[in-house]
Design brief:
The chain is mostly helical and about 170 residues long. The protein is about 50% helix and about 10% strand. It contains 7 helices and 5 strands. The protein has helices at about 10-20, 25-35, 45-60, 75-90, 105-110, 125-135, 155-169; strands at about 1-5, 25, 70, 95-100, 145-150. Strands 1-4-5 form a 3-stranded parallel sheet, with helices on one face. It has a two-stranded parallel sheet with strand order 2-3. Helix 1 packs across helix 7, helix 2 (about 25-35) crosses helix 3 and helix 3 (about 45-60) packs parallel to helix 4.
């Protein structure tokens, strides 16, 4: 999964996981746990969370299951991390990217979102707007991999069905 905070990727990921009977590895709770363990917030806790997610995904894939990784994946090195994991293990990697074309809806979702992540503050709309500028075009190893972009203004069941069709094709 890839997409800005509040774009709907966790909602889609959870429903996809339920439909496919596979786990979701989400980066944000991992980062919250890293901070809860006492690692200083000035450290690269986001990078650490991506590496922990990769380790967990590796173990799940080695057990013969599929896995959904729920992360912003805003830059080529983050996206390529998953491609390289797939190559190491001989599994296909597909990306589902979420966008919300209605900025007002995206903002409302973000402002109304309540997660139980005690050590991570919810991003502000201003932070997401800045992230939009930093969200890199698809390039690197991930550029050549299958990718579905979902506009999350559509109803969640429709989005999940589109994603299932893409993943099963």
């Amino acid at each position: 999964m890839a997409g800005l905070p509040g774009s709907g990727k966790s909602t889609v990921a959870e429903q996809l996981a339920r439909a496919l009977g596979i786990p979701v590895v989400s980066v944000d709770p991992l980062e919250s746990s890293i901070l809860r363990a006492g690692i200083d917030a000035d450290q690269p806790t986001g990078l650490a969370a991506y590496l922990v997610a990769e380790t967990i995904a590796d173990a799940v894939l080695r057990s013969g299951q599929g896995v959904i990784v729920d992360a912003v994946n805003a830059v080529a090195p983050a996206r390529d991390q998953w491609v390289l994991l797939g190559e190491r293990l001989g599994v296909e990697v597909r990306f589902v990217e979420t966008v919300c074309s209605d900025l007002g809806l995206h903002r409302r979702r973000l402002e109304e979102r309540r997660r139980d992540l005690l050590h991570i503050a919810e991003p502000t709309w201003h932070a997401v707007e800045q992230s939009l500028d930093e969200y890199a075009p698809w390039s690197g190893l991930a550029e050549a991999r299958p990718r579905l972009t979902l506009d999350t203004v559509a109803p969640v069941p429709q989005l999940v069905e589109q994603a299932l069709d893409f993943l099963r094709s």
